[in-house]
């Protein structure tokens, strides 16, 4: 049995998600201790419990310690299952982080599957659903992940109520990737949304982002505005946010910002635009957030994968440490100097086929 210390690196939920996803697809029993030890509220919260339940369901796993506040979890995966599933966080806990837990397993399911996840789609400290749709999923497809994501309803903090559906087509293996140069910048796209709020909130977010980017880049920019008739708005809300993504010759890089009470819409839009400019100035092929999500896929793929990222974050370093604990034979190398921009991440995958 492999023991993973949840206090290493960033000491948060990323350790649990990575450990469960890889252990599940490799059918290795693990025990995770000191879960989320470096957080103000350590232990399993509802979002994490939903991830545990989901991955346990898909792998017919034996689980011990899956309760609210638990700081230790035993997970013994068995046979992979497929079909139609619904998992509900019950709060505004992030649906995209539940998806992160499942991601390594999805290409290896024995048949086509539909997975519905309910909770928060656009909440702090997690990838917004539009980042997953427009930035990460195109990159994951390069690895051989065949999956569509349907946004049924948005959910914001604190009320949640969001719904996504995943339509998964198993490929039973993954491809190595080489994303070292992004190539010329072609266009910038984005989506600015608001729910249970006046239309002008989403419009002002989009305009602020457009103005900031166009002044600096002078390239085509298309930011869609998403809003709802207040009398027909199905969301619990209120909430708003914007995701921007740069389409280059060889890759996609993204950035985002969420609205909050007392935070001007113009600040939301400009914040996302500033983040995207920072990503582009690194000359990396992928942004810092895509990097840590790609590593588990690169590990399972056949052959050598290489990406350049705008920054080697603590999240990415933690993912790499967890990977090495579960798969000691894997070879991962990274640039070590903070001055290295972009950062090069090289993985010799194990070539898992199921």
Walkthrough of the structure:
The protein is an alpha/beta fold and 354 residues long. It contains eight helices and 16 strands. 32% of the residues lie in helices and 28% in strands. It folds into two domains: 2-178 and 286-350, UDP-n-acetylglucosamine1-carboxyvinyl-transferase, Chain (Alpha-beta prism); 185-281, RNA 3'-terminal phosphate cyclase, insert domain (Dihydrodipicolinate Reductase, domain 2, 2-Layer Sandwich). It has a four-stranded mixed sheet. The chain has a four-stranded mixed sheet with strand order 5-6-8-7, with helices on one face. Strands 9-14-16-15 form a four-stranded mixed sheet, with helices on one face.
Distance between the termini: 22 Å
Regarding quaternary structure, what we see is single chain
Mean pLDDT: 96
Beta strand %: 25-35%
Largest sheet: 4 strands, mixed
- CATH fold group of the largest domain: UDP-n-acetylglucosamine1-carboxyvinyl-transferase, Chain
Output the radius of gyration.
20 Å
How would the global form be characterised? globular
User: Which second-level CATH architecture of the largest domain applies?
Assistant: Alpha-beta prism
Count of discrete domains: 2
Lateral arrangement of strands in the main beta sheet = 1-2-4-3
Unreliable runs:
none
Task: Specify the CATH class of the largest domain.
Answer: Alpha Beta
The total strand number stands at: 16
Instruction: Count helical runs.
Output: 8
Topology order in helix (H) and strand (E) letters: EHEHEEEHEHEEEEHEEEHHEHEE
Looking at this structure, what is the CATH superfamily of the largest domain?
Answer: RNA 3'-terminal phosphate cyclase domain
Subcellular location: Cytoplasm
Family: Belongs to the RNA 3'-terminal cyclase family. Type 1 subfamily.
Domain RNA 3'-terminal phosphate cyclase insert: 180-281
Protein name: RNA 3'-terminal phosphate cyclase
